[in-house]
Protein: Choline/ethanolamine kinase-like
Amino acid sequence: LNVPISKEASWLWTSINKWHRLSCELMRDSTKDDTLVEKLRSFDSPTEIVYIRKLIDQMNSPVVFAHNDLQEGNILLKQNKNSRQVAFIDFEYCAYNYRSFDIANHFAERIYGYKSRTPPYFTEHKDEYPTRDEQLTFIRTYLAEYNALQSNSRAPNRGDSQRRPMSPRFKAWFSEASSPEEQMLKEIQVFSLAGHIFWILWGIVQGHVSTINFGYLEYAKARINHYLEDKIRLEEEIDASYRSL
Structure:
């Protein structure tokens, strides 16, 4: 993309650090519902941010110009009988970012609906998360387009070549991927955690400053629960892979 903006994958960490700083300030002086606020305060976001970054720094996910908020309200299906094209809107969070963050966030957003007219004004259906086959269909289509761009010398940047060496535990799990599609599935699993952290902190901040009628703090709590479930699942897989060596 020929625009005067940074093409490094700094947006994610800059944003997370900003939301974390603001959330800490707002939570410290919060007068919101005690039970909910205590639940949010009990989440050790500094430790989790370090944990996620260590995992991401061991991978080499390509950096692309990403939307970073591909939820249902930002994807429009064109009304054309002869075409199934879609259009993206709301580019507020667009930036260069890790490719797998954008896709992981899109998959996670399949769970959440934002059309409810009753508090907390969102719904959560975990059975809507894409199946493995659905994810692979998406990934194969994406990679076909990505590879076509590469052949035309218009492909996005690769990830940071100075990544950290993989730890033995992480390498045992990640090296099980036998194809680019399988590798991307594993990247998405890791970046899902980063997406949860981003929206947890965002929700806490918006819950204290926004005047929009939406359960931001309830949303942050839902994303915490989702994060913890996904982290447990990932750690179990990594441990199982390492033990099988």
